[in-house]
Design goal:
This protein is of the alpha/beta class. It has helices at about 30-45, 60-65, 90, 120-130, 150-175, 185-190, 215-230, 230-235, 255-265, 275-280, 285-300, 310-315, 325-340, 380-395, 405-410, 415-430, 440-450, 465-480, 515-540, 545-560, 590-615, 620-630, 635-645, 655-660; strands at about 55, 70-75, 80-85, 110-115, 140-145, 195-200, 245-250, 270-275, 305-310, 350-355, 370-375, 490-495, 505, 635, 670. α14 crosses α16 (about 415-430) and α16 packs across α17 (about 440-450). The radius of gyration is 37 Å and the shape is extended. The protein binds adenosine-5'-diphosphate and zinc ion. Adenosine-5'-diphosphate binds near residues 250, 256, 391 and 420.
Length: about 675
């Protein structure tokens, strides 16, 4: 009945609401396409060398039209096309209905037309026809050798040319990824010019360090660069060298772009920014020339900051992990290296680049004098999240009793961009509900929404089902509560969320890097707690535990075959993230069998353990489940009120191992349903 979204303690699957896609840029080629179509349209209407009537052959004309005496006039245009006008009343005769079905009555020029190769030939053909059908009234023939006049003739000469040029521009646009200015022909001459957006000094970049919450260490590191940009003399006078390039390393949405912009804002220097992927979509030679041009512009505006987002798009290690080498990307990368080597440290250009994958970068990029500094920007911790909330609520009307600390505690694993998203979403929800200020409820709704689609109150759940869901969730909550190494609970709910989850329990993992075997084992138990309660209370199990079981299976296999946590299988790890082994298993058939058996055993032991625990705490399960049915959402405070303090939440008695690592905390998040 419900599926879960679990986040592993390692945080690699942290709740990650869909960020708004990095906006598909408005595609200029549509404008060109439209322009072309309009041109062609004008051409048609203007009647260049098009004929208005339905085109037929001379034979057809002779037999079906002329012979029947329908033809009133013939008009020969430019010795090339003959327009055939029929008698008006003949068009209305029923017997001609089939023949003339597709012909419009009031066509300019004539209802039919045919082309002739040679005017003399036409004249003799007509003479023959007259002889052949002596009874037919002869058609009046007129000639116009300059149909359409000068302009039209010019058009018909120029149009194919214009079309070609148009198509060429379109192609270049595509390959150039929308180079340069937006104006028609402007783009033609801007191919290869960098499309770096330039924010002029002081006026445009009004982002400062105040807009960047958290990231204190990163700020300290970049402060030096800012100071250098402000007072370059101070540094160069002493012969000091300022690093030209720094790499901002961190997951998406954590504020790398924001930080780079703030640096430009603080130093009051121009900011050039572009994305690595802009370089590679291009045509041969264009990427390199863009790089050249970018640096040329930058040199003119120095001191300044160049920011290259997604540098891995161009900076991937050359010739590695690739079926085909990408010449264009290599050229671009080489040009970037040349440019970075080409200016001296005191020229006042600082190049910043962002990536989430420093490991895939070509080592040439990381050499001294290039991106030789790395500034790590991580997912914000509790305090960081609170600060980010404050920054984004600064300009919003929020209710006075809103507790940003509580909001931060509820959003473990969220990146800055996610929090910005929540704040915006909350404002929208409040506005929709006609409120004059944003309150906690709006934020809770916004968080749920950002986590996984909109709350679906309308989704119909039968009362019996709801009861099973409530007990299932209570099983997770209570088992976690009484398992020493389980993660502390943030909230448990049976409000359906998005399509998948009918309820979920959200946990706050301890902020640390290492996970002990005991913790994984307790995690297994807690995740199985939902199904265990179903069995204990209802004597039946449901499909609601599907993703619990998936999660458990994954975890158990990892413990046995990746973390070496099984006595029988031993201290071995078959971790293969790059899939280097392909379909080949790196162990023998026998070991494989052993792994399977041990995994089964592990899960079985955990299931029996949690079942024993829960039958012991049956009363607590009942209390929580009934409350869930009533309130739908329970927070940690509610659980304390209902079933007492969690026995293990007293001051931590952690082994040295954990104490050591808790210094560099990372906020992680765990959810289990
Ligand atoms: P990245 O470049 O790391 O992908 P961005 O800098 O583009 O992330 O962040 C996107 C948005 O998220 C920012 O414009 C800002 O609104 C918000 N944001 C991210 N990190 C922070 C932060 N540390 N403080 C304040 N806002 C942040
Ligand atoms: Zn569950």
């Amino acid at each position: 009945m419900e599926q879960e979204q679990n986040n592993t303690p390692k945080g690699d699957k942290n709740i990650k609401p869909k960020l708004p896609p990095k906006g598909p840029k408005f595609n200029m080629s549509w404008i060109y396409g439209g322009f072309l179509i309009a041109m062609i349209g004008v051409w048609f209407i203007g009647g260049g060398f098009m004929t208005e009537g339905r085109e037929i052959s001379f034979q057809k004309f002779e037999q079906e039209l002329y012979a029947k005496g329908l033809v009133e006039k013939l008009h020969v245009e430019n010795k090339h096309i003959v327009q055939v006008s029929l008698f008006k009343d003949s068009l209305e005769l029923p017997k001609n209905a089939v023949l003339l079905k597709k012909v419009k009555q009031n066509v300019k020029g004539g209802q039919f037309s045919f082309s002739i190769g040679d005017i003399e030939q036409f004249k003799s053909d007509m003479a023959k026809a007259v002889e052949k059908y002596p009874t037919v009234k002869q058609a009046e023939i007129t000639y116009d050798n300059n149909k359409g006049g000068f302009l039209n003739n010019l058009m018909s000469m120029l149009l194919p040319l214009l079309l070609l040029v148009g198509i060429w521009v379109l192609l270049m646009r595509k390959m150039g990824g929308g180079a340069g200015g937006a104006g028609g022909a402007g783009g033609l001459f801007n191919i290869g010019k960098s499309k770096a957006t330039l924010f002029e000094k002081g006026t445009k970049v009004n982002v400062t360090f105040n807009d960047v919450a958290g990231l204190d260490e990163a700020k300290v590191e970049v402060m030096e660069v800012v100071d250098f940009l402000k007072h370059p003399k101070k540094y160069t006078a002493l012969g000091g060298k300022i690093p030209k390039g720094s790499l901002l390393v961190g997951p998406p949405g954590t504020g790398k772009t924001l930080l780079a912009k703030a640096m430009a804002g603080e130093a009051q220097v121009p900011f050039f920014s572009l994305s690595g992927s802009d370089f590679v979509e291009m045509f041969v030679g264009v990427g390199a020339s863009r790089v050249r041009d970018l640096f040329k512009q930058a040199r003119e505006k120095a001191p300044c900051i160049i920011f290259i987002d997604e540098i891995d798009a161009i900076g991937r290690a050359r010739g590695k992990n690739q079926m085909m080498s990408n010449d264009e990307r290599e050229n671009t990368l080489n040009q970037l290296l040349v440019e970075m080597d080409g200016f001296s440290g005191d020229s006042g250009i600082i190049v910043l680049a962002a990536t989430n994958r420093p490991d895939v970068l070509d080592t040439a990029l990381l050499r001294p004098g290039r991106f030789d500094r790395q500034i790590t920007i991580g997912i914000p911790d509790l305090k960081g999240r609170e600060d980010i909330f404050k920054v984004h609520l600064g300009n919003k009307k929020v209710s006075k009793d809103l507790n940003t600390h509580k909001l931060a505690a509820q959003t473990p694993g969220f990146a800055g961009a996610d929090i910005a998203n929540i704040c915006n979403e909350a404002a929208l929800i409040a506005a929709r509900n006609g409120k004059s200020e944003i309150d906690l409820q709006d934020f809770n709704d916004a968080i749920d929404r950002v986590i996984g689609g909109i709350e679906k109150k309308s989704k119909i759940i039968l009362p019996e089902e709801k009861k099973v869901i409530a007990y299932h969730e209570a099983g997770h909550a209570v088992s976690g509560w009484f398992l020493e190494h389980a993660h502390p609970l943030v909230k448990v709910t049976i409000v359906p969320r998005g399509e998948a989850a009918l309820g979920y329990a959200q946990y706050l993992p301890k902020e640390k890097y290492l996970t002990l075997k005991e913790e994984l084992e307790d995690d297994l138990c807690m995740t199985l707690g939902g199904r265990a309660v179903e069995e204990l209370v209802f004597g039946k199990i449901s499909t609601g535990a599907l993703s619990d079981l998936q999660q458990v299976t994954k975890m158990a296999y990892a413990m046995v075959s990746v973390y070496g946590m099984n006595d029988k299988v031993g201290n071995v790890s078959f971790y293969d993230p790059q899939n280097e082994n392909g379909f080949q298993k790196p162990y023998s058939e026998k070991t494989g069998q052993m792994i399977d058996d041990e995994v089964r055993k592990l899960i079985e032991v955990a299931y029996e353990r949690v079942k024993a625990l829960l039958s012991d705490k049956k009363e607590a399960v009942k209390i929580i489940a009934e409350q869930l049915l009533e309130k739908e959402v329970l927070y940690k405070d509610d659980l304390i009120r209902l079933i007492g303090e969690r026995p293990y939440d007293l001051p931590a008695v952690t082994p040295d191992l954990i104490a050591e690592t808790t210094n560099e905390l990372e906020d992680n998040n765990k959810e289990a349903e």
